[in-house]
Amino acid sequence: MTTRTVHGACPHDCPDTCAMQVTVENERVIKVQGRADHPNTHGALCTKVSRYPERTYHPERLLHPLKRISKKTEAPQFVRVSWAEALADIAARLKAISDPQCIQPYSYAGTMGLIQGEAMAGRLWNALGAARLDRTICASAGGAALAMTYGHKLGMHTRHFAGAKLIVIWGSNSITSNLHFWTYANQAKREGAKLICIDPRKTETADKCHQHIAVLPGTDGALALGVMRELIVNDWLDHDYIARHVDGWDELRGKALDWPPERVAEVCGISADEVRGLARDYGTTTPAAIRMNYGLQRVRGGGNAVRLIAMLPCLTGAWRHPSGGLLLSASGWFAPYKNPALERPDLLAGRMPRMVNMSTIGDALLQADPPIQALFVYNSNPVAVAPESPKVVKGFQREDLFTVVLEHFMTDTADLADYVLPATTQLEHLDVHTSYGHTDVLMNQPAVQPLGEAKPNTQIFRELAAALGLTDPCFRETDEELVAQAFTPDIDLDLLRTQGWQPLPIPEAPFADGGFRTASGRANAAGADFVPNYECALTDPALAARYPLAMISPPARNFLNSSFVNVKSLRDIEGEPLIEMHATDAAARGLADGALVAAFNDRGRYVARLKVSPRARPGVVNGLGVWWRKLGVQGTNVNEVTHQRLTDMGEAPAFYDCLVEVQAA
Ligand SMILES: Nc1nc2c(c(=O)[nH]1)N[C@H]1C(S)=C(S)[C@@H](COP(=O)(O)OP(=O)(O)OC[C@H]3O[C@@H](n4cnc5c(=O)[nH]c(N)nc54)[C@H](O)[C@@H]3O)O[C@H]1N2
Ligand SMILES: Nc1nc2c(c(=O)[nH]1)N[C@H]1C(S)=C(S)[C@@H](COP(=O)(O)OP(=O)(O)OC[C@H]3O[C@@H](n4cnc5c(=O)[nH]c(N)nc54)[C@H](O)[C@@H]3O)O[C@H]1N2
Ligand code: SF4
Ligand SMILES: [Mo]
């Protein structure tokens, strides 16, 4: 028996980007653990990724190319084909498309690796002049807001939350989706810090905080303005910091004064004392730190909400302390170390193909002019995760659409493909990673050979480029050669190979003396304001009368977006698709706990089990997790009811800006 351990990195779309230790016995991975010596991982992975061997050696893993033989509207049927046949046919289909802009890539963060992400794929699309993809589905409202406010997606060190005296966890279920931050928050709590959670749902994180403020979805901007007003009238402001490091304060100050606690309370569905108390805690505690996550920006006004909240540490001067400030994303810290030429934008040779927004793929597939003729999906499961799935499904069912899906499993999206190509997992390929929750670069070494006939994404795109007759030498570069081009020379690849990670040199208190990355170097408050939801009583009372319940659909703890839904041991923990509802709302509808119910609106109908639960506040229902439609009830998931309207900034989806009614199914 031979046993060895290999250094890995978790590839998932999660702020923690853990360093993994992979144990291989007789060329089979038997264990995946968190590395004890990596500071942010501190020896532990989450439950779902601890099950990586179960996912990788799953009996339903895709191990060879498949070609569709049924109609798109019929039950999916595929036959096994060789790689040579699949690639030759796919290349022929692509060559027959005269306008390359009608070829549409669709990818997201199934792996966050720089190499298995866009390194080789981007080269192919650039060389072909294929349509570009605006990758907005998750973070672009908040990202645009941070860029406008601080100049980039920048924030405090996650480890310094341990030293805070007040932590406001705002729009984040950290125990579910940012577990390693929670370790630091817990440490602060043990040392006497107060923890406040702001979330419509009473999450497992809210349970562990000292206070939970259950705002209505999409009202955080109003709350932030209300906190500002209290900071002003009680003079809890750092006038020196504002004068030296903030632009646009006079304008914002004027707006904030219009938000007395009673007005905020009414809009947010909370009490005026909750507003006053939050402002008092925030204005009078040092150091005070805010951990936002992307939950609160999945609403129409999400960008403005992030802008307003991001101003708070500038107004109190919280940035002066390493354990004060704010973190939504740290990904901007990596920007100076990344090589922008990795995906070879020069291959576009001056062309500027059309850009399609991934968040409105339903409409794009049905309405784009000229129509999308070929669709290439990798690292994503849009049929499950994109908003308003009835339209997404209809778009994917077009018989004249040629769809290729690179996957590990027969997802809802793969079910609608013409070709399904088997891809390797993180245990089988090389990659390098940055993070959006900490500031270390990581390397992932392949632990075992690819399973079956699976190939890394890079290899699939290499072979497709060859089948298309593309001769640029960049299409022959190996993954090792791609890694060598991923970063500037400041990243020490030898250190990544031996240790597995390298921290970036970020100052302990990065904005203690200003130095934001905006053009002026100052934080920018100009123009930020409260923007209400599309779907709420404030903006559309007629709609709110027909569909009186706001529905949010935050992550389920044991899934990662739609990944892991097919891993039985994890699905067994989640049980079945659930809609959480407050007892008063259930009683008003005569609905009993455990009933099969449908949440519906003009767009669609999502069927799930009702859980009458104090985790839901009155007026808001929680549809947890992005289930695979085919593993849900009656082939539905929560995106049956979400809409495709975009946020105020960043053109992102407003998943949590959604009105429904619920009745027995
Ligand atoms: N286990 C697990 N971990 C994950 C994921 C997962 O699916 N499962 N997803 C990963 C991904 S893709 C991302 S982007 C990250 C972050 O993912 P996020 O989507 O930010 O997820 P959460 O941190 O769970 O935060 C969402 C929280 O925001 C709350 N919320 C919803 N609407 C509002 C609102 O209007 N205002 C406020 N204040 N709160 C609101 C929700 O109830 C929920 O508790 O997490 C990653 N980590
Ligand atoms: N209603 C609602 N919808 C949501 C959300 C929500 O909170 N509510 N969250 C949104 C958010 S934050 C996000 S980020 C998106 C996420 O949406 P996606 O990025 O689509 O994420 P996943 O659902 O995890 O699907 C990723 C797929 O990539 C595949 N994959 C993983 N690694 C590889 C690889 O190396 N090669 C190939 N070829 N495939 C691979 C996995 O098997 C998986 O099927 O969903 C969004 N959708
Ligand atoms: S999903 Fe997040 S917490 Fe889990 S192992 Fe990956 S990086 Fe760590
Ligand atoms: Mo995300």
UniProtKB/TrEMBL annotation:
<protein>
    <submittedName>
        <fullName>Molybdopterin oxidoreductase family protein</fullName>
    </submittedName>
</protein>
<keyword id="KW-0500">Molybdenum</keyword>
<dbReference type="InterPro" id="IPR006655">
    <property type="entry name" value="Mopterin_OxRdtase_prok_CS"/>
</dbReference>
<dbReference type="Pfam" id="PF01568">
    <property type="entry name" value="Molydop_binding"/>
</dbReference>
<dbReference type="InterPro" id="IPR006656">
    <property type="entry name" value="Mopterin_OxRdtase"/>
</dbReference>
<keyword id="KW-0560">Oxidoreductase</keyword>
<comment type="similarity">
    <text>Belongs to the prokaryotic molybdopterin-containing oxidoreductase family.</text>
</comment>
<dbReference type="InterPro" id="IPR006963">
    <property type="entry name" value="Mopterin_OxRdtase_4Fe-4S_dom"/>
</dbReference>
<dbReference type="InterPro" id="IPR006657">
    <property type="entry name" value="MoPterin_dinucl-bd_dom"/>
</dbReference>
<dbReference type="Pfam" id="PF00384">
    <property type="entry name" value="Molybdopterin"/>
</dbReference>
<keyword id="KW-0411">Iron-sulfur</keyword>
<dbReference type="InterPro" id="IPR037920">
    <property type="entry name" value="YoaE_C"/>
</dbReference>
<keyword id="KW-0479">Metal-binding</keyword>
<dbReference type="Pfam" id="PF04879">
    <property type="entry name" value="Molybdop_Fe4S4"/>
</dbReference>
<keyword id="KW-0408">Iron</keyword>
<dbReference type="InterPro" id="IPR050612">
    <property type="entry name" value="Prok_Mopterin_Oxidored"/>
</dbReference>
<dbReference type="InterPro" id="IPR009010">
    <property type="entry name" value="Asp_de-COase-like_dom_sf"/>
</dbReference>
<feature type="domain" description="4Fe-4S Mo/W bis-MGD-type">
    <location>
        <begin position="3"/>
        <end position="60"/>
    </location>
</feature>
